Each structure stands twice: as structure tokens, then as C-alpha cells.
Amino acid sequence: QVQLQESGGGSVQAGGSLRLSCTTSRHIRGYTCMGWFRQAPGKAREGIATQYAGGEITYHKDSLKGRFTVSRDNAGFTFFLQMNSLSLEDTGTYFCAADRSILGCRNSDFEFRGQGTQVTVSS
After folding, report:
1. Over the stretch 47-84, which tens digit does the pLDDT of each residue have?
2. Is 62 left (phi over 0), alpha (psi -120 to 50) or beta?
3. DSSP secondary structure code for residue 101 in this structure
4. Please, what sign has the CA dihedral across residues 42, 44, 49, 50?
5. Measuring CA to CA, which residue among 71, 66, 72 is closest to residue 85?
């Protein structure tokens, strides 16, 4: 059974940084796509960034470009989200997700999703 586990969330002051990790029980190349999503209180879930197994990355919000960066470790079992210059609007639950379908990052409903990690940004 595939498992995704996020870690690295917490409380941080505005302007600070956090690095989220998503550890997977399956090698990253076993997925066609992995992604980071978030959900703020009272708002719909939104995509942050997705990455194809081959490496191509798409950032889904212009407001996050330059502040948020995705990467993965060489061993192939961890997917990262580096978040810099955090603002109050970045508060929310952050999820990683993965898909094995041929749709890859075009899939609107990823096959696997972690439980999420909470990020709270305060002034």
C-alpha cells in the first residue's frame, strides 16, 4: 500500500521559512506525478506545484513563484517544498499527493494523498 507522509510544518513568523517533506513508501519514479497542495481555513484546496517523474515542474500560482520551490532527494523517496518569505495568507494545511495514471500531473484527482501538515504564519 502506498503511503505518503508529510512533515516539517509548524508555526513561523511572517517573513520566515519552512521546508516541508513528503516521504513516500514507493520510489518517486513509480509515480507519473507528485504534487504539493494546500487548503486554507474556509477555502478550497489549491495546487501549489506538481512535478512529473521526469523532472518537469509546474508552479500553479503566480503569487508563489520565487517563494516556493519543489525538489526531491537523490534517493528518490522524499519530495520537498521549500517555502520562503511566508505571509499570513500562506497559513493552511499542506498536502502532498501522487499519481500513477497516464494523466500524470493533468489528473485533477491524484490517486494518493498524505494526511497533511499544518503551517501557521503569524505576524
Report:
1. 999 999 889 999 998 889 899 999 999 888 999 999 99
2. alpha
3. S
4. positive
5. 66
